[in-house]
Amino acid sequence: MDKKKVIVFVVVTYILAWAVQIPAALYATAHPDMMGMSVFQIGAAASMFAPLIATLVANHSIKGMGWLPKFRGNIKWIFFAVFFPIVITALGAALFFLIFPDLFDTTGSYLAAQGESMGVDLLAQLEEAGLDYKTYVIFMLVQCATYAPIVNMFIAVGEEAGWRGFLYPELKKELGTVETWIVGGTIWGTFHFPLMIIAGYEYGKDYLGAPVLGLVVFTVMCIALGALENMIYEKTESIWFPALLHGSFNAIATAPQAFLNVNSDGKSDRMFIFGPAPNGIISMIPMLIVVAILGYGIIKKERAEVTDEDEASEVIETEADE
After folding, report:
1. 14, 67, 181, 245: which is deepest, by most CB within 10 A?
2. Would the pTM count as exceeding 0.85?
3. What does the angle CA 95 – CA 96 – CA 98 come to, to the nearest 5 degrees?
4. How far apart are CA 224 and CA 314, in angstroms?
């Protein structure tokens, strides 16, 4: 592992990302309206290219990251990248609402509350557009399963080129697979901390255990998701596949909140740390189980390969002695 390159990469990534995230988060906090949200979203999206830029600053070539999509033999991974986040998010949300049935709602109270906080009536705007809330939800889910992951992919690739294209392979030169996932995921999670601390990104500011618990839980999610994205990158050898997976998660992540009941004396805000988005303590359980199973298979295979290599070396040494 080139420690100097890794240190330069991490430092530059944080400097570039936080230089954008902090002003955007401060502005959004001071202006809780549509403009504030737009500035926040633009800032968050722009910061996603910091890892790619940092990779170049660290003087690491990006040519070998698989920029040409490799479709042959990888079609199944396209479907996996698009639909796995949808399935795992649905399972996590179902588990959350099974445990907290009083937080389930199909009237659009969450959307109404979001609009109210920004000074607009979103439900009224839907009616003016000829849509009811259920139609809106269906349309949103169709977006998540079709073009939204592809659109998000072109933004997510800025992160993936840095994390999966440079950082994880570099860490793996010196660390084991699990250690690489933990260190890489922790660095990735920390990347988001200014947005979370200042603007309440992901969990808001009123959740149980705020603000520390959210940072820990989100980092665990990044470790798990980072491991999954690293697996698909190593399988396909193309940076676009983990970027598509990342883009699909970003598209579907907030969809379960459409079914939140905010008319529960503020309980929904306090429970964000548990779900229903896939980064909650409860709602991420299905993903953790899948990652654990897949990770166990990979680690077992790697150990078997090492054992075979050791046995082969012993045979060669024995024959040489004879």
Report:
1. 245
2. yes
3. 65
4. 37
